[in-house]
């Protein structure tokens, strides 16, 4: 009896030591780092289109691949119920609105897959048809009626416009499903 109790105590001590050593939940740490990598990748692509960064086809391809790999089903898998709420920045509402959360994750995944496919074929220097406002589906002004066509068929949208649509999905999800934690 005594030994069993001692063994049980010991295993409890070990378990809490492991938790302390590992720090915060590794699933949370992994998804936060994944989000940061997406942010860095999006910044890289935006910088190349804005002229703040030198355009580099290989870097564009890598950055688009980073976003593709972390959206869609991969993003959904990063948010199991038990990891939601403080201390993470993931709201508990994700569980109450799973279908909406997953639809957003899939929507951004489709856009990122389309962008990555375009990046695979990216030319050595930026061409006009990669820029916002170009292409038959766009017809010029972003404020016009045409952008809906890009939503309906993202493959027709120029790469720069796809990036903007992707960033809109980042914001839509954050405004609903992300919280500030102290
Ligand atoms: C479907 C929802 C969803 C989408 C889409 C999404 N995010 Fe997030 N993001 C979250 C949630 C929820 C958190 C909070 C995660 C946590 O703290 O556990 C988060 C956190 C972050 C963070 C903070 C990470 C940290 O260190 O705490 C950054 C940066 C970020 N997202 C960038 C992006 C970018 C850039 C995109 C688009 C390319 C994006 N996210 C798309 C839901 C989303």
Overview of this protein structure:
This protein is mainly α and 182 residues long. It has a single domain (24-177), classed as Cytochrome c/b562 (Four Helix Bundle (Hemerythrin (Met), subunit A)), CATH 1.20.120. It is 64% helix and 0% strand. The protein has eight helices and no strands. It is globular. The termini are far apart. The structure holds heme C (HEC). The site of heme C has 24 residues, from helix 2, helix 6 and helix 8.
What portion of the residues fall into strands of 2 or more residues?
under 5%
What is the helix content? Answer: 55-70%
Number of domains: 1
The CATH topology name reads: Four Helix Bundle (Hemerythrin (Met), subunit A)
Q: What class, by secondary structure content?
A: mainly alpha
The whole-number mean of residue pLDDT values reads 86
Radius of gyration: 21 Å
Determine the number of helices (DSSP H or I, runs of at least 4 residues).
Answer: 8
Major β-sheet profile? none
CATH second-level architecture: Up-down Bundle
* Low-pLDDT regions: 12-20, 137-141
Find the CATH superfamily.
Answer: Cytochrome c/b562
Backbone shape: globular
Bound molecules: heme C
Level-1 CATH class name: Mainly Alpha
SSE order, as H and E?
Answer: HHHHHHHH
| Quantity of strands, as a count | 0
Our measurement of the CA-to-CA distance between the termini, rounded to an integer number of angstroms, reads 45 Å
Which structural traits does this protein have?
single chain, 182 residues, mainly alpha, Four Helix Bundle (Hemerythrin (Met), subunit A), 8 helices, 0% strand, globular, binds heme C
């Amino acid at each position: 009896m005594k030994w069993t109790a001692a063994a049980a105590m010991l295993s409890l001590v070990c378990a809490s030591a492991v938790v302390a050593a590992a720090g915060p939940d590794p699933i949370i740490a992994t998804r936060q780092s994944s989000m940061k990598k997406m942010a860095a990748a999006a910044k890289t692509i935006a910088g190349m289109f804005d002229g703040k960064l030198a355009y580099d086809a290989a870097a564009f391809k890598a950055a688009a691949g980073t976003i593709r790999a972390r959206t869609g089903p991969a993003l959904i898998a990063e948010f199991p119920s038990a990891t939601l709420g403080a201390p993470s920045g993931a709201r508990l509402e994700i569980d109450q609105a799973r279908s909406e959360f997953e639809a957003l994750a899939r929507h951004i995944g489709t856009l990122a897959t389309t962008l990555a496919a375009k990046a695979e074929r990216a030319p050595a220097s930026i061409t006009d048809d990669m820029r916002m406002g170009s292409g038959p589906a766009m017809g010029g002004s972003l404020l016009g009626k045409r952008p809906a066509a890009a939503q309906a068929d993202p493959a027709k949208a120029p790469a720069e416009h796809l990036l903007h649509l992707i960033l809109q999905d980042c914001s839509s999800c954050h405004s609903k499903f992300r919280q500030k934690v102290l």
